């Protein structure tokens, strides 16, 4: 009760708006991929609903607990690249064997936290590379939002004008204005389809795990690798670039524990958010950085509500046109992209490495099943190594001091 009072005292309308937008973007952008992954494993409709319930509760409760503990906007989400791994590796793997693979992934994530090795790696990544990595990830989303102007020019142009006016006169509520303005235009154009929305609460369905080396090696280990490389690294970068320094190892440990607990119900992998985290980390979420954690907590509450509704989620999210969702997300991320680029290019000695990191990440290249976020960071680190290996800084000693 005390924590609830603190949250309500520290919150603001902009924090509620940011939390809702983060949840909306997070669910709508990849929920179809989650459904596809579950169906690929032969899940029944009730089991798919259980997946939504487990994922919603896992994300919501983890986000609430970690944000309240650290007093920082910590947003936990499902592994988006992991869902693609599951769908791609589903051939010959039963649902129960997949659950066993999910448990292996969760244990490996937990080990990353308790051993502290992941945090040690993150501590060695220069801020310039972390900033350019984050900017590259978010810029892809922003580009897609403006590309949506081709099929829906009136919708996107209206949202952009609302954003610009909002930035000028009510900056804290600019993103909320974009959401409301876009929804009004979409409704006027007949783009909102609520015919599929039906109230239906979810029920948990337990699947007993079985062990298969084939499932562990083809699904569990790749799920762990892409989740850590494509989400954990940019997720930590997003938090640190925004000025917060929470303990990284416990975040990894709790992500792993949550995965282990909820895997039998469909919670296949949880980790730090990057794209949606930038929405609650943005100053638009709350003018006071010390109270910005409330935006993440509101997102956690909306996650839980989404999970409990379960069967109604697909219809509810399908009611919003894709252009509206992409437009809101892209404009909500503009400030964070700008700050990331400014920080990444501030140091002349790391400017080229930062630029290469940004471009490789933005390219969307996928190698060995691992996404561009990881390869962008690798490219930046290699560039720094080649440029600065065994190069001593210039001496500032005068001729008489040598």
From TrEMBL:
InterPro entries (UniProt xref): Benzoate_Transporter, HTH_AraC
Keywords from the UniProt entry: Membrane, Transmembrane, Transmembrane helix
One Pfam family in the UniProt entry: BenE
Transmembrane annotation, as ranges: 12-36, 48-68, 75-93, 99-118, 125-149, 169-192, 213-233, 253-281, 293-314, 320-341, 353-386
Superkingdom of source: Bacteria
GO CC, any one term: plasma membrane
Residues annotated as domain HTH araC/xylS-type: 1-51
Keyword Membrane: yes
Single GO molecular function: sequence-specific DNA binding
PANTHER family from the UniProt entry: INNER MEMBRANE PROTEIN YDCO, MFS FAMILY TRANSPORTER, PREDICTED SUBSTRATE BENZOATE
Name the record gives this protein: Benzoate membrane transport protein
Species, as recorded: Aquabacterium commune
